[in-house]
C-alpha cells in the first residue's frame, strides 16, 4: 500500500491540492511579513516614540526609543523583538498543536482553522495607522503564531500524500507555487504603491488587507481537496482515552521530547536547522528594513527586489529539486548554506543607493532560498517516525519561516548597540557557520533507518 493509501492518480490529485496552501500563505509571508509590515510598523513605532518629545525639546533630535514596561526599546528593533517573543511562545504552543494534530482524524480542517484565524489577524493589520504600534505588535504576534500552527499541520500532511522518493519533488513544487502566488500578489501591490504614490500609507494598508484575504480564500482548496485520514498508531501515554485529547497530547509531547534522544541523527539535524534556518529567516525578514533604512531605497524599489526574489525563487526551488534527485537532498542543502554565507557578506558590502548590486543580491537570494527550505522540509520528513509527523514537525516549525528568534534577537540587539543595520546583518554569519558545523555531523542513511523509514533510491 502507498503512503497515501491511494493509487498514483488520486495521490497526485491530493498533492496538487496540497500545493495550494503554499500559494495561499505565501501572500502573507511575502507581502506582509517579508516586505511591507516590518518597515511600516517601524515607522509607526518611530512616530509614537517621537511623540514623547516635548515642545521645548522640539529642536532636539528624537531618540526613537519606546518605553515599554519601564524598558527603553529602539523602535527600529521592535519588529525583531516581537518575532522573538512569538517564537519563544511557539516553542511551547506548537508542539502541543502537533500532538493534537497527530491524534486528529481531520488534519485538513485543523489546517483551515489555524489558517483562517491567521488570515483574519493579517487582514486586521489594515487598521494599524498613526502611532498605534501596539495594535500592530499584537496582530503580528498572533498572525505569526497562527501561521506556525497551520504549517505544523501542513508539513505533516506531506508524509500522508507522498512516497519517500516523491517528497523532494513534491516539496519543491509546493515552494515553487508559493513563490508564484506570493510574487503575483506582490506585483499587484507594487502597481498599487506606484499608482498611489501620493498616499503610500493607505496603499500599504490596502496591500496588508489583500494578503489576509488571499490567504483565507486560497486555503479553501487544500481544505476541500485533501481527504481526512485516521491517526497512524499515535503513541499511547498515561491517561490516554480518559483525560481527553489535550491532556493526552501533553503526555505525547513529553514522551516525544524524551524519545527524541533515541534518534540522535534527527536531533542533530533539528539543531542544525534551528541555526541555519534562523539565519535564512532573519535575512529575509530584515531585508526590507535593511533596504529602506540602511541602503536608502524607496518602498517601491524594495518591493521590486522582492519580486525578483519571488520569481527567481521558482526556478531555484525546482532546480534544487532536480539536483537533489541526482545527488540527494542532504548534499544540496549543505552546498546551499555556503552560498548563504556569501549572500550575507555581499549584503554587508553593498553600498547605499546601488540599485544594480541590490538587485543582483536579490537574484542570488532567490536562487538559493526556495531550494534550501523545500529540501530541508522533505529531508526532515525522512527522519521522523510514522504516526508522529505533526508533533515532530512542530519542533521543526518552531524555527521555520517567520518564527525564528535567535537571529532576530541578534539582529535587534546588534542594531540597538551599534545604531546600524550593517553589523547586525554580518553578525548573522555565526548562525550559518553553526548550522554547517552541525549538518556535516548528520548521517542521512543512519537517520532514516533509525526512524524506521524506507530508504529513498537517492539519499
UniProtKB/TrEMBL annotation:
Q: What InterPro entries does the annotation carry?
A: Atg22-like (IPR024671), ATG22/LtaA_families (IPR050495), MFS_dom (IPR020846), MFS_trans_sf (IPR036259)
Looking at the keywords, is Chaperone present? Answer: no
> Does Amino-acid biosynthesis appear among the keywords?
no
Where does the Major facilitator superfamily (MFS) profile domain start and stop, copy by copy? 265-459
Q: According to Swiss-Prot or TrEMBL, what is its membrane topology?
A: Multi-pass membrane protein
Q: What Pfam families would the database entry show?
A: ATG22
Membrane-spanning regions, if any? 78-98, 110-129, 135-154, 175-196, 202-221, 267-290, 302-321, 328-349, 355-375, 395-414, 420-440
**Where is this gene product found?**
Cell membrane
Molecular function terms, GO-annotated? transmembrane transporter activity
Q: Which UniProt keywords apply?
A: Membrane, Transmembrane, Transmembrane helix, Transport
Cellular component annotations (GO), alphabetically ordered: plasma membrane
Q: What is this protein called?
A: UMF1 family MFS transporter
What are the top taxonomic ranks of the organism? Bacteria, Bacillati, Actinomycetota, Actinomycetes, Propionibacteriales
